[in-house]
Amino acid sequence: MPEYRILTETISGSVPAKQRPQFARLVDRLEPGDILVVTKLDRLGRDAIDVSSTVAELAKIPVRVHCLAFPGLDLTSASGTLTMNVINAVAQFERDLLRERTQIGLAAARAKGKRIGRPRALSTKAEEDARAALAAGESISKIAKRLAVSRATITRLRDDQLAAQSTD
User: Fold this and answer.
1) CATH class of the domain at 17-111
2) What does the DSSP assignment read for 61-93?
3) For the segment 25-46, what is each residue's pLDDT rounded down to a tens digit?
4) Of the CATH numbers 1.10.287, 1.20.1070, 3.40.50, 1.10.10, which one belongs to the domain with range 124-167?
5) Hey, what's the torsion of the CAs at 22, 99, 70, 36, to 10 degrees?
6) Would you say 92 and 46 are in contact if contact means Cβ atoms under 8 Å apart?
7) Which residue of 35, 45, 78, 93 has the smallest Cβ count within 10 Å?
8) For the purposes of burial, counting CB atoms within 10 Å of the CB of 130, is it exposed (0-12), middle (13-18) or buried (19 or more)?
9) At a CB cut-off of 8 Å and minimum separation 6, what does 122 contact?
């Protein structure tokens, strides 16, 4: 029975393949004639150029690349390369469209005065109370505990206050 080597990685596919430690480790272990099996094409990478160059480099070893989403198709073959390039191009196009739509939506929301990001931890009144307590010398820990927020929230408030004072 052949020995199977399985490596898993949790780093985003948006990081180029050569920069992912487990993938680099895997490539170092590959030998001529091996078959690299990936569950989906985007597991190799999200960028069409990176995926294509990775498959081309593996083909030089020579290592065949199979994707479970395309049974029986060797991505290092001529037809596999064509299929992979078309699918990668469409996937990248969809990601770029999504990114554009997201940016347009965020800009429209900002233009309407909507605050983007996490909700504020402190109300305006609680923020004023915290600033007054800081000015009175109360400790960050006590203020945070009393207002039921993290110390980092009060520290950020203090740092913002100090920065505003230094620009005055």
Assistant:
1) alpha beta
2) TT-EEEETTSTT-BTTSHHHHHHHHHHHHHHHH
3) 888 889 999 998 888 887 787 7
4) 1.10.10
5) -10
6) yes
7) 78
8) buried
9) 130, 147, 149, 153, 157
> What are the residue boundaries of the structural domains of the chain, listed by start?
17-111, 124-167
Mean local confidence (pLDDT), 105-126: 92
Four-CA torsion 115, 120, 124, 126, nearest 10 degrees: 180
* 84-110 pLDDT tens trace: 888 888 888 988 999 999 999 999 999
**Residue 168 binned pLDDT confidence (cut-offs 50, 70, 90):** low
Give the CB-side neighbour count of residue 98, counting CA atoms within 13 A.
6
Query: What residues are paired with 35 via a beta bridge?
Result: 64
Of 74, 69, 12, whose CA–CA distance to 45 is shortest?
12
Cis peptide before 62 (omega within 30 of 0): yes
Could you give the C-alpha distances from 152 to 66, 70, 117, 144, 149, in angstroms and in order? 48, 49, 17, 9, 8
**Is residue 36 within a helix (H) or strand (E), and if so which, with residue range?**
strand 35-38
The tokens for 32 are: 């001529």
Distance from C-alpha of 49 to C-alpha of 88, rounded to nearest angstrom: 8
Higher pLDDT residue, 108 or 14? 108
**pLDDT for residue 1 is more than 50:** no
